[in-house]
Design goal:
With 237 residues, the protein is mostly beta strands. The chain is built from 4 helices and 12 strands; from the N terminus they run βαββββαββββββααβ. It has a single domain, classed as SOS response associated peptidase-like (hypothetical protein yedk fold), CATH 3.90.1680. Strand 3 (39-46) and strand 4 form a beta hairpin. The longest helix is centred in the first third of the chain and has 8 residues, at 11-18.
């Protein structure tokens, strides 16, 4: 499951990567702990043009009468074409979710240790997503789910799933509103190469969705390993 992500890259970098015409006078605010039910930035096709829009993270299908609390945060790529909650969105409303990292948790004794995963050396990635519009009592709600795939060897010790990451050369194919054939789209949904990723443990402050600051990304000592101690310069009698 992918349930916490980051997006700290500049608006200019995002616009350049995704080919967006974006008002740089309204820069994106760096996000260090995006959680479900919060707004999340997506790139989608609107009237033949790519746009950057903020959608609610947690998809509510358009046909919902009593929405699932929180919506659907993730969608498994293996069943996205079959599940009623996602199949229409997969055919007609695919999107890309810019992100520069995500968190997962490892059970260590009675404690869950959070880890941060990112592209090796840093940089923007594009998670595959599907979105929908639900007519709620207070007006239309646009929402999105992140597609997941089986985890690679770096993520698997912590979780068996990871976000589906679309390569830059496949952006056009994934966003094409005229393409709905699963046989053309499913091959784009693959685990990211393990040799192109890195991870490190971070503070458990990230557990609280209300905490949002750059220090969340600072590396912490690896759990279970002895801390390095400055050796004494003098013999002890």
């Amino acid at each position: 499951m992918c349930a916490r992500i980051t997006l700290t890259t500049t608006t200019t970098e995002i616009a350049d990567l995704f080919g967006l015409s974006y008002d740089l006078s309204q820069p994106l605010r760096p996000r260090y702990n995006i959680a479900p039910s919060q707004p999340i930035s997506v790139v989608r096709m609107t009237n033949g043009q790519r746009e950057l829009a903020d959608l609610r993270w947690g998809l509510i299908p358009s046909w919902s009468k009593e929405p699932k609390p929180g919506g659907y945060v993730n969608a498994r790529s293996e069943t996205v074409t079959e599940k009623p909650a996602f199949r229409s969105a997969f055919r007609k409303r695919r999107c890309l979710i810019p992100a520069d990292g995500f968190y997962e948790w490892k059970q260590i004794g009675k404690k869950k240790q959070p880890y941060f995963f990112r592209k090796l050396g840093g940089g923007v990635l594009a998670y595959a997503g599907v979105w929908d519009v639900w007519d709620g009592p207070d007006g239309p709600v646009e929402s999105v789910a992140v597609l997941t795939v089986p985890a690679n060897d770096l993520v698997e010790p912590l979780h068996d799933r990871m976000p589906a990451i679309i390569s830059e050369g496949q952006f056009v194919a994934w966003l094409d509103p005229k393409e709905s054939r699963a046989e053309k789209l499913m091959p784009l949904l693959l685990p990211y190469p393990v040799e192109k990723m890195e991870r490190w443990p971070v503070s458990d402050r990230v557990n609280a969705a209300t905490v949002e600051d750059p220090t969340l990304l600072l590396p912490m000592p690896e759990p279970g390993k002895p801390k390095w101690v400055q050796p004494s310069l003098f013999d002890v009698a």
